Amino acid sequence: MAEDDYPNTDRARWVAVEEAAELIHEERYLEALGALRDALRADPANGYAYFFTGVALFECGQLEGARDAYRACLRVSPRHLGARVALCHVLRKLGSHREAIAAGVAALEQAPADGDALYAVGMAHWARGDLPAAERYLSAFLRAGPEFEVKVEVESILARIASQTPDRNN
């Protein structure tokens, strides 16, 4: 593909998944998966289709499938930040904490101040039991100005971390 064809190809790939994205928004995940399967048959290099497949599978509780879809997205679209962050979360939920942290750090290398990536890495460190690292990333996440609900969740986690961490002044 010529470099000047990229915007047209990207647009076509987005158009191919718009209906599926809307179905996901409507929580019609199985229907979305059918539409995404069709999009991938038509264009196996459609990163959007892999990403939204990951989203739909995650929402259906199929974590391994979601992980594989996010990895496939990153193979064809290595700069897809959303897939990197989502991969971090799904790996954490699968108990693969080191891999989750690596995925999250890769996202932060791409976008150092990204709140979603900071949250994902902080949660992965917390799940792993690395409280100082979790505190560092989650505190940075709060400085990014998150929405109220997740802010309250993170403040609660940080309070638990503070209660488990020996006083650093002693």
Write the layout of secondary structure elements.
Blueprint: H1 6-25, H2 29-42, H3 47-59, H4 63-76, H5 81-93, H6 97-110, H7 115-128, H8 131-143, H9 148-164
Give a nutshell description of this structure.
By secondary structure, the chain is mostly helical. It has 2 domains: 1-78, Serine Threonine Protein Phosphatase 5, Tetratricopeptide repeat (Alpha Horseshoe), CATH 1.25.40.10; 100-170, Tetratricopeptide repeat domain (Serine Threonine Protein Phosphatase 5, Tetratricopeptide repeat), CATH 1.25.40.10. It has helices spanning 6-25, 29-42, 47-59, 63-76, 81-93, 97-110, 115-128, 131-143, 148-164.
Please give a structural write-up.
There is one protein chain. The protein has 170 residues and is an all-alpha fold. It has 2 domains: 1-78, Serine Threonine Protein Phosphatase 5, Tetratricopeptide repeat; 100-170, Serine Threonine Protein Phosphatase 5, Tetratricopeptide repeat (Alpha Horseshoe). 78% of the residues lie in helices and 0% in strands. The chain has helices at 6-25, 29-42, 47-59, 63-76, 81-93, 97-110, 115-128, 131-143, 148-164. Helix 7 (115-128) runs antiparallel to helix 8 (131-143). The termini are far apart.
Can you give keywords for this protein?
single chain, 170 residues, mainly alpha, Serine Threonine Protein Phosphatase 5, Tetratricopeptide repeat, 2 domains
Query: What is the number of strand segments?
Result: 0
CATH superfamily of the largest domain: Tetratricopeptide repeat domain
Number of helices: 9
| CATH level 1 name of the largest domain | Mainly Alpha
Question: Structurally, how many domains make up the residues?
Answer: 2
Order of helices and strands: HHHHHHHHH
Span between termini: 62 Å
Range of strand content? under 5%
Poorly predicted sequence stretches spanning 5 or more consecutive residues: none
CATH topology of the largest domain: Serine Threonine Protein Phosphatase 5, Tetratricopeptide repeat
Q: Average pLDDT value?
A: 94
The CATH architecture category of the largest domain equals Alpha Horseshoe
